[in-house]
Amino acid sequence: MTVLAIARKNNKVCIAADTQIEVSGNLVSSEMNRQHDKIFKFRDTWFAYTGASHSSLMLKHALEEYGSDLSFSGSSNIYTSLLALHQILKDHFYAMPNTGDSNQPVEDMHLNYLLANPSGIYQIFGDRYVGDIATFWATGSGAKHALGAMHASYPLYDEPADIVRKGIEAACQFDAYCGLPMTLYDCDLE
User: Interhelix angle for 53-66 vs 75-93, to 10°?
Assistant: First the structure.
């Protein structure tokens, strides 16, 4: 349970996340969890995850150990890197294929991420869909609240950090599974 928000404006990008997690039905705040940041950096790319916490650890280790040839600059490079990562996760990290949905056209990676880097902002789904986002987006249990706040804020603010901040704050105000403080990272576009 989480909320992630991302925005691009005026040649800058910003990515943010709440810091509350849910473990076995218990809400755990950042004061109790030393690993509360849902965003990590690999080279020039910020990765923010929603879903199972272990998928983040798996991806971090896979990138550190096997990611030297991977690129997250642009949709095509991201997609190609996701194909390679999928095999790496299966071969070296025992990721299980999703066999529960017969309508799923490809094996699921169990990764749902937002990415921010100098080439832009992207949404990644487990089926390796790569969404190249033009303005802003949010995902997670608080996404509807965040999207509404970001929609209202986008024309009012010049800085993407102000836009994502409003999104995360709204989600944390109205979604029981989201909690402050937030973490926030930004960079300039190429």
Answer: 100
Classified as helix, coil or strand, 171 is: helix
Model pLDDT for residues 14-72, shown as the tens digit of each residue: 999 999 998 888 889 999 998 899 999 999 999 999 987 777 888 999 999 999 999 99
Q: Please give the structure tokens belonging to residue 9.
A: 């404006």
Q: CATH classification of 3-188 is 3.60.20.10, yes or no?
A: yes
What would the pLDDT profile of 60-118 be if each residue is shown by its tens digit?
999 999 999 999 999 999 999 999 998 898 889 877 766 566 666 677 766 789 999 99
Under DSSP, is residue 130 helix (H, G, I), strand (E, B) or coil? Answer: strand
- Pairing of β 136-140 and β 120-124: unpaired
Report the alpha-carbon distance of residue 96 to residue 102 in Å, rounded. Answer: 15
Left (φ > 0), alpha (ψ -120 to 50) or beta: where does 56 sit? alpha
Strand pairing category for 21-23 and 45-49? unpaired
127: which residues sit within 8 A by CB, 6+ positions away?
Answer: 104, 105, 106, 108, 109
- CA-based nearest residue to 29, from 188, 190, 179: 179
Residue 9, classed as helix, strand or coil, is strand
What is 57-124 written as a DSSP string?
A: HHHHHHHHHH-TT---SSHHHHHHHHHHHHHHHHHHH-PPP--S-TT-SS------EEEEETTEEEEE
